[in-house]
Specification:
Blueprint lengths: L1 H25 L6 H10 L11 H14 L9 E4 L5 E4 L1 H17 L8 E5 L4 H13 L2 E5 L5 H11 L3 E5 L3 H7 L8 E5 L10 E2 H7 L8
Parallel strand pairs: 3-4, 3-5, 5-6, 6-7
Antiparallel strand pairs: 1-2
Helix pairs in contact: 3-4, 4-5, 6-7
Amino acid sequence: MRALLKSQILKSVWQFGQPEQSFHRSHRLLYSPIFKQYEAVSRGEQPLPEYFNFAKDVLDKWSQIEKDGKKAFNPALWWINGRGGEVRWSFEELGIRSRKVANLLLDQCALRRGDRILVVLPRIPEWWLLTVACIRTGIILIPGISQLTAKDMQYRLQASKAKCIVTTDALAPAVDSIANECPFLQTKLLVSSGEGERDGWLSFNALFNRFNHADVLC
C-alpha cells in the first residue's frame, strides 16, 4: 500500500513538473540578456546596482532591443474590455506613453519624487501608464479599488497626505464631497470616458494629448 502511494505521489510530481520544464526550455525571454543579468545578481555573481528603476532598467531596455531588431514584436501590454475593444502596445509605445504621463504628473500636477498620489481606477490602460510613470519619477502611487466610498478615500487621502487623486467620472462626486477635509490634496485628475470636463478637475486625456514626442523629457 505504501509503495503504491509513493508511486502515485512520484507520478503526480513528475506530471506537474513537465509543463514547467517545457516552459523553461521554450520560453525565449528566459534567455534574454536582461534575464541573465537578473540571474547573475540573484546568484551573487554580479553586484546589485546602486540605483535601479524598473521603467528605465527593464522596460526601456526591452524597447531598445525591439528597436535594434533583436526581438520580434510582442505586446508589452495587451488589454481587452468586455465589449471587444482592445489595446496593444509594444515596449516602445508603453515607454513613450508612460513618459508622457510622467511629464504630466511633474508639470501639470506639480508632483515631485516622494510625493504621494492616490489612484482609484479600474484596471484600464491608464492605470498601467500611471503605475509606470510613478516608477519613472519616484512618485509614490497608492492604488485603490473602484469600490471605495467617499469615507474610504477621505481616510486614505488624510493618512497618506497625498497631493493628487486620479479617478473616473463615477467617483468624482464622492471625491468632491470630502475634498475640503483633505488639506494636502492639491490636484484632482479625471480619467473620463467622454470628452466632458468637470469643475475643479484636470482632464487626463486632454493633458496627455498635449504632449508630443518632442515634449517627452523623462
